[in-house]
Write a structure and sequence with these properties.
Blueprint: E1 5-7, E2 10-12, E3 18-23, E4 34-39, E5 46-51, E6 57-59, E7 67-72, E8 77-82, E9 91-97, E10 100-101, E11 105-109
Parallel strand pairs: 2-11
Antiparallel strand pairs: 1-3, 3-8, 4-5, 4-9, 5-6, 7-8, 9-10, 9-11
Amino acid sequence: QVQLVESGGGLVQPGGSLRLSCVGSGIIDSFTAVAWYRQAPGKERELVAFIDGGGTTNLADSVKGRFRISRDGAKNTVYLQMNSLKPEDTAVYLCTSSRFWGQGTQVTVSS
């Protein structure tokens, strides 16, 4: 089945780290552009990170220096490494590619 599946979310203390995975069999390969978005309650969906077909990455200003996006085409997976997490990073994180969307994974940053 062609779909995107996110995982890796959870509850973490401020300053902690998480690595999110977006697996897309039949969608993601070594040259697939993929984006990570997040949506917090009462807020608009926000673009967090993007990797293009050539591997160039872009990050939202709010996460630069703390988050990193990477791709492993052999595993059909794009990762979002999140370090130095802050309470304001709390949101549902979703990946998207080729007009497909995953179901999202919840990230909660709280002490």
